[in-house]
Structures are given as C-alpha cells and as structure tokens.
Specification:
By secondary structure, this protein is mostly helical. Helices cover about 65% and strands about 5% of the residues.
Length: about 650
Amino acid sequence: MVSSLPWLLKPDLQPGSLAPFDAVAPKGALVQDSTALEQRRSNLLARSVVQVIDRQQTLELRQRLERQLGELQQVSLTGSAARVGPVNLDANEQRWLQKRSENERLAWDDALRRAADRMLSQGLVSGLAEGQLREAVRLQVRDLVAEEPAARSLAAKLLTGTLQGSSNLRTDPNLSKQLIETQLTKQGIPTIEVRAGDLITRKGEPISPQAYDVLDYFGKVRREPQPAIWFRHFLEALAACAVMLLVMRRERPGLEVRHALLALALLLLVQGAKLWFKGSISPLAVLVPPTLVITEGLGTGCGLVWMSIAALLWPVPVNGLGDGRLLMAVVVAAAGALIAGRQRSRGQLLQLAVMLPIGALLGQWLMLQLQPLTGWRIWGATNPNLDELAAESLLLGILLMLALLLIPVLESSFGLLTRARLLELADQERPLLRRLSCEAPGTFEHTLMICGLAEEGARAIGADVDLIRTGSLYHDVGKLHAPNWFIENQKDGPNPHDSLDDPQASAAVLQAHVDEGLKLARRHRLPRPIADFIPEHQGTLKMGYFLHKARERDPDVDESRFRYRGPAPRSRETAVLMLADGCEAALRSLPPDTSDDQARDTVRRIVASRHQDGQLRKSTLSRTEVELVVRAFVQVWRRMRHRRIPYPIPARRGLSV
C-alpha cells in the first residue's frame, strides 16, 4: 500500500514520455518555466548565503583577548618576557609597558576592547588576508594614545594576533532562502511565451519539460485519482513481497511468521522513509542497516533478497537523487550482507559497521571523480561536495551502530538466531549445559561424541555447522528430569526399568525426555531452531527394545504407543543429528580390528533403516549428501580409534629404612 501511494494521484503525463495526442495552444499566455526556475534557484543557492553574528564565537574571541591582556600585564610587572601569545614585543614596546601607569593601562585596555567590539560587531571572516586584517586593525587603533607610537603598534599586534584566522559568522538558512526568493523576484520569473494556435506537442514525440509546463497550464495534465495505475503498482509491490517471502522460505526452511513480519516491517519502514523525506533521503541510510539486521538474523541469502526488493520498490524512480547514490547503496548493502554472513562475533560486526561507511565514502568520491570522464550524470541535479558525502557516511555509521545495539533486542522479540548468539549458546559454561554435565555425566559425554559426528557430517554437505553444534549440545537436555532411567548414566546399580517391568510405562519415560526437554528449552528461552533439535532428533522412531518386550507379552500391541511423537526432521541439520545419534553407539561398539568398509556398511544399515521408516522424507537430504555424511561419520570414528604406543610404567621403589 505504501509503495503504491505515489501513483494514486499521479499525473497521466510526464516530461520525457511520449505524447498521446497533438496539443495546440487554445490562446496566448505566459507560462512559468519551472525547469528554468529550478535551474536559476540552484545557481543562486551556491552564491546566496546570508551570514549572521555567532554570539558563541564572539564570546570566545573576547575571552581570548582578555587572556592576552592578562599575559601582557604579567609582562609589564615582571619584565622577563619578550612575547605574549603569538605577539613578539620589540624594545620600545617593552619600555612603554614598564613605564606606563595603572590608569594608562586601564585606559589602553578599554580602548583595545572597544576596537575589538567594533570589528566583531561588523563580522569577522576567517579567510581575510593578514595584511588586510592588519590594516583594518591600524584604522581602529589610530586614535589610541596618539602620542605613543609603541602603544599603537602593540595594540595593532595584539588585536591582529587575537583575530587572525578566526570568524564569528555563521550561515542562516532561513535568511539565505529569503535572499534567494528576493533575488528571483528581482530577476523575474522565467516564462514561456505561447501564442494561440502554437503546437505544444506532437503525438508520439517526447514531451519536453517546457511543453509539460504549457500542457499543465492549459489543464491537459490530469491529476484525478487513477485507480488502474495505482492498482497495477500495488500488484507489483504485492508480488515483490510474495517473491521475497518465497525466496526467504527457500533459503531458510524454518522461517517463522514473526521472521516474515520483521522483514515486511523493515520494508514498510524503508518505504515510509522514502515517501516522507523524498529527495533528501539517503539510500545508504535506509538500505544498508536493515540489510545487516536481516542478514545477521536470517542469513546472507535472506538479506540479499530483502535488499533487492527494497531497491526495486523505490517509489517514484530515484526522486531526483541520481542513479549513482542508489547504485552505491545497493553495492554497499550487498557487500555488507556477504561479509556479515561470515562474521562470528559481535566485535567483527562492530568493525564492519566502521568499515562500511568508510568504503561508501571512498566509493562515492571515486564515482564523483570519474563522472567527467564517463559523462554519466549519476548525482541528479547537483553534485555533492566532500562534506556532504562525509555527512552521509557518518549518518550511515551511526545507524549501523544503532542497528547492532538493536540486534540483541530483535533476537528475543522475533526469535532471530545470529551467528554470535549461536556461539554464545554453545558455551559449555552456560547453566543448562553445566547442569547436564554434573547431573547426567553419561548423557553429556554421549552428547559431546554426537556433537563431533554431527559437526563433521554437516561440514561435509555444507550445512550450518554452528547451528548443528549448538543444537547437538541441547538435544538431550530432557534427560535431566530422570537421568538414572537412561543406560549411559547408570553405574553398577539396578536398572529402574527392570523393577518397573512395564514396557509401555518405560516407553513413556523415553517420550518424557523429549517433552521435558522442550519445557527446559522454553524455560531457558532457547531459540526455536535450537529447540527443534530436541523432538526432531528422535522423529517418530520406534522404541525398539520396549516394543519387542511388549510384543513378547501381547503380539497384537499397538505399535504407535512405542513411537516418539516427532515431528520427523524438517531440516538437513536435524536429520544429520538423528543419523549421528543412531550411529554413535554402533560405531563405538565395533571391535578394534574393524575395517573402514565394515564401519561404512554398519552406518549405511542404520541410515537405510531411518530412510525406510520415512524419517528423512522432510529433511531435503539427497542420496549424495547422505553418502557424504556416512563417510564423514567413519572419518570421525577412525580419529576416535587412533592407536597409541604403550608407555612403560616404572616399578614403585620401596622406602629405604
């Protein structure tokens, strides 16, 4: 809706478009030439600057003069210095200082202050040549103690040294604008003389800016609501948003509704800023920071597609900004997305927030220097100066810093999972992982081994290694609700399942470790992609041991009671973790003389059983990727089973009596 608003009351004709009809002037008239008027206003803007007295600068200059007078008084009392600030004293001036009385000093100081006030009240220009400033000072102090040349020369030196290179003027934008309008009025409004019967436009030929002004004057340009044009642009913007969400869903299969809402909200913010600020908007400021936020939270692909749609939906093409600024913003945003996707800490992001504005400044300056060589008008009506480019880059840097500060807030509000957040969650000193290592040490050791397998498998197929490492660490936290009911945590004591002697109740204990794990994930505010590893690593697998026990008692037992409630893995990462969880125990139990081919066959049988059970159907894992995962598991197993040489242990010596 916001993107299509400019076309709701859009004129049906535009300068440069082809005329749909022949137009003849119905009568003579003088029509204002808006193009010439705007050009004249642009020319006056550079040389019609009104300056006023800056009171703060004036006060600082007066204080500087007072400090110089104070130093001069110290010289007159001690007679030990031949210099006051930037002023060198000759012998005559030093003698005059020594012999003057207190009344003469006070009178001389007051006269010097009055001379400075007269000059400051007229305005002081910093670029005034030193010779001209010295001549102006001499005129101001020529009646100062006329019988003493040393007093006049010292006053001229002191006042010149105080005011040299300083200014007490500042530009007043409102008065400058009034001056421009006054000068335009004096010069007269540029007009186009039209006589009755003159041909304004010929059908099929481009409409010139002057012809457009004439057509508008005679009411040939309609501005009533044009729902057809508006609806077409509305559908274009709607389709662009749909394409953006589809591509983001393809890039990130686990895309949530709140992630899509964040992307659309940032797009809405950009479109609103473009319409509000119009030609004064900075494409760098509205494209680069949101792209960085989307990239950090959803990945490089999502950041790039968001940036592309935001640039394509620019309302009213470029708004007089010039193609160069929009092109530079797209290049900087794309570079930021590509680099940010590889950053692994918030410190690196902070460095990126500093480097991107510097790169934007250098890029725009280079384009400005190459403009005369290429002949391409890339900056709109007027070229910016270096100060304007620096101000735009500074604004970009400030907004990037604000975006980095907002990312932790957006992480919790919209469930974003940034690379830095993943690394923080993988810290084994976090309370939930420390509790797992202390209360369920066997489960924790099993978790670390699975983490190594899954990480290597993800690396082999190009999956998200950081995501699968962090998800692996938390996939079995639900066993904390009853760690002794799981074999890896049982020492030499009895197995509680034997005393329970109820396969269905034992199956409920196994399912409970998934349910309790999800509760712990919510309690510790684990992001959704991490919490998904808890149910999906088991999927809807059968609890084979207890199903076998139950069938020994009742062959017609319902198999669904002995399956996990799932869901089955919905991403490559959770599927790899499921395979690692199933293969870890089998690989660890292989005898020492097992060959690599035998280990691969063992892993393939486990993977085939998962595949036949339909557990990998939603994971998008291809057969080639599954084979790469199998080979990666065997490589990890080979590293775990490396040989060591036996070290001789010296015999214990007895104590000598």
